Amino acid sequence: MAFTKITTSQNVFLEQYLRGTGRSLTARQAEAMYGIKNLRARMTEFRNAGLRVNTRPTTDGRTSYLVSARDVTGSRASRFA
């Protein structure tokens, strides 16, 4: 399966793709569709930047990541752009 080339940094792309959109992404999906090999590390960077990252289990036991529109201080300002 070919992946979509990301022309921005992974963090900028993921923030735009996930933050406040209600979309979720698993590590397997991130690698297959966008070539992002370590989604868990990107989500750790999001948490360290003050974003609210939520996880939920999928039906096959994997972890799916979602990012809240608001950060931990209540702001909606972009952290990576």
* Quaternary assembly: single chain
The number of E-state strands comes to: 3
Separate helix tally = 3
Bin the helical content.
25-40%
Structure, briefly:
By secondary structure, this protein is of the alpha+beta class. It contains three helices and three strands; from the N terminus they run H-E-H-H-E-E. Strands 1-3-2 form a three-stranded antiparallel beta sheet.
Explained architecture:
With 81 residues, the protein is an alpha+beta fold. The protein has one domain (10-70). It is built from three helices and three strands. It has helices at 10-18, 27-34, 39-48; strands spanning 25-26, 51-57, 63-71. It starts with 9 loop residues before the first helix and ends in a 10-residue tail after the last strand. The mean pLDDT is 90.
Which tags fit this structure?
single chain; alpha+beta; 81 residues; 3 helices; globular; three-stranded antiparallel β-sheet
Helix-strand blueprint:
Layout: H1 10-18, E1 25-26, H2 27-34, H3 39-48, E2 51-57, E3 63-71
